[in-house]
Amino acid sequence: MLLVVCTGNICRSPLAEAFLRRALSTKLGVRSPQVRSAGTIARDGSPAREETLEVGAEHGVDLSQFRTTALTAGLIRGTDLVVGMAGEHREEVAHLVPEAAARTFTLKELVRLLEAIPVGGDRAARVAAAHAARAGGFDGNPHDEDVADPLGLSIDAFRAVAWELEDWSLRLADALEPVPAASEA
To answer: Are 68 and 49 in contact (CB under 8 A)?
Structure first.
């Protein structure tokens, strides 16, 4: 399972979850991993923000049935990969479950790392290679690691975040699974 984390689980992570699920499903079909999202201060069962629903619909994803999930240590332990929307989310995951640090990245950090390593290996091997590359230092821009939180801003800010998340989600799907899936019979 792949877990996407933000703060309230009402703006960024629901969109990233939907975009990443769609990108992986398009690429891998039935072999696509489960994708979920959670928030560091979320309360279970709340809907996404109205603006999130609107921009999701503009991008072809229906989030009307989405409900928030609180980030827990148990949820983290049950994942193969955790993708935070900002550095603070990566740090919170590592604080809750220190052994998850090697498989926890920000979205932009992970994409940049994966795009810089040679193609090959399964998802777990690619995540391990990304962690090794991160530990060795890489050319990523530490000042452009976060996806801005649009909460409290205009619908245009939500639209900008949605465009950014859709693009980074497509790039992540391609970088995690660089070899096209065999045709499903």
So the answer is: no
* Contact yes or no for 76/182 (Cβ under 8 A): no
CA-based nearest residue to 72, from 5, 1, 2: 5
Provide the pLDDT for residue 141: 66
In this predicted structure, what is the pLDDT of residue 142?
A: 63
Q: Rounded to 5 degrees, what angle do the CA atoms 7, 144, 85 make?
A: 20
- Residue 2 vs residues 48, 77, 154, 173: alpha-carbon distances, Å: 19, 11, 29, 11
5 contacts 83 by C-beta, under 8 angstroms: yes
Which residues of the chain fall short of a pLDDT of 50? Answer: 181, 183-185
pLDDT at 143: 66
Contact between 47 and 66 under an 8 Å Cβ cutoff? The reply is yes
pLDDT score for 144: 74
100 near 3, Cβ under 8 Å?
A: no
- Domain edges within the chain: 2-176
Instruction: Assign domain 2-176 to a CATH class.
Output: alpha beta
C-alpha pair distances (Å), 23 with each of 16, 115, 153: 10, 16, 27
Is 89 exposed, middle or buried (CB count within 10 Å of its CB: 0-12, 13-18, 19+)? buried
